[in-house]
What we know:
Elements lengths: L9 H15 L7 E5 L2 E2 L6 H10 L16 E2 H10 L9 E5 L8
Parallel strand pairs: 1-4, 2-3
Amino acid sequence: MKAAVDAPSHYLRSKGEAERLIRDANSALDWTIFQPSVMFGPGDSFLNRFAGLLAVSPGFFPLAKPNARFQPVFVDDVIAALRRCLHGGASSRQTYELGAADLFVA
Length: 106
C-alpha cells in the first residue's frame, strides 16, 4: 500500500499528508521524497523474522495478505541513493519509489 491522504490506515494517511504538505510548501523549499519498499539489513526485525519462520516451515511463506507484493531493498542501497541526492540538482523536487531494482537515482 502507498502513502496517500485517502489510504486505508492512519499510518499511511499520515505519511501521505506529510508528503502533501512538503510538496505544497513554500517554493523556496528544496525537497526530495524517498518512498522505499520494505528495507532489510543486518539485524532487521522484518525479513529476518520471515527467514526464521521459513526455516521451521519450508515452502510456506506467511504474509498477512496472500496477494501482498513488495520489493525488499537493502538499507545500504537506500543510504547510497540518499547520499547521491544530498545536494539537490536533478533530484530536487522529485519523488523516488525505491525498490530492489530501482536504486539508480540521478
